[in-house]
Amino acid sequence: MKNILVIGSFGQIGSELTPELRKRYSISNVVAADLCPKPDSPLSEGPVEKLDITDAQAIADLVKKYSIDTIVNLAAILSAVGEKKPMLAWNIGVNGMLNCLEVARESGCAVFTPSSIAAFGPDTPADNTPQDTIQRPCTMYGVTKVTGELMSDYYFKKYGVDTRSVRYPGIISNVTMPGGGTTDYAVEIYYDAVKSGRYVSPLGAGTFLDMMYMPDAIDACINLMEADPLKLRHRNSFNISAMSIDPEMIAAEIKKHLPGFELVYDIEPIKQGIANTWPNSMDDQCAREEWGWKPNWNLQTMTADMLKVVGEKFAKGVI
Ligand code: NAD
Ligand code: SER
Question: Which CATH number does 171-211+243-280+297-316 carry?
Answer without folding.
Answer: 3.90.25
